[in-house]
Amino acid sequence: MKAEKILDFIQEIGTIMYVGGILSHIVIGAVIGHPDPQTALTVAIYKEMSAYILILPGLGLKFLVDIIMFVQYEIKPNWLKIKLLAMTFLAFNAFVFMMPLMPEMQQLARDAMESGQLSQAFLDTVATEAIVGQSNVLPLLIELWVGAFRPKLGKERLVS
């Protein structure tokens, strides 16, 4: 029972880091935005650093706990399978789409410093980041819900 509590605690820390990092990206974009190249560069640097400091480590902690739980369960519960599937989607989006956008946004903001105006390429990259971020909402909510409530799903309902 003690090991389960420790895993739950690590999962909570991972959730705080992951979701908190994502929320900070949303807030800084909404509050500061990208009105000029210098501000856009500062926001892009912040987003990349917070991804390395909060989002990716939080995602890693959550995934690590999920894998440990998956190994521990003799019969794998459906909620855990769904949680792992959602986490895989979130990790795929993070590494394949979001992380490559971070240095690209910085470079486009640096390039805009000369002209003093943000390019359409920068604005398109910001829009892509928003779309990818929005695609994470439903899988994240599902992952959080099944992780918190651990519902019996499918054939599991018939077992007990």
What is the first-to-last residue Cα distance? 21 Å
Helix and strand content put the structural class at mainly alpha
Q: Mind summarizing the main beta sheet?
A: none
Mean pLDDT: 94
Estimate the strand proportion: under 5%
Q: Outline of this structure?
A:
This protein is mainly alpha-helical and 160 residues long.
Structure, described:
This protein has 160 residues and is an all-alpha fold. The protein has one domain (2-159). The protein has helices at 2-31, 37-72, 78-115, 120-135, 137-149, 156-159. Helix 1 runs antiparallel to helix 2 (37-72), helix 3 runs antiparallel to helix 4 (120-135) and helix 3 (78-115) runs antiparallel to helix 5 (137-149). It is elongated, with a radius of gyration of 19 Å.
Key features of this structure:
160 residues, mainly alpha, 6 helices
List the helices and strands and how they pair.
Elements: H1 2-31, H2 37-72, H3 78-115, H4 120-135, H5 137-149, H6 156-159
Helix pairs in contact: 1-2, 2-3, 3-4, 3-5
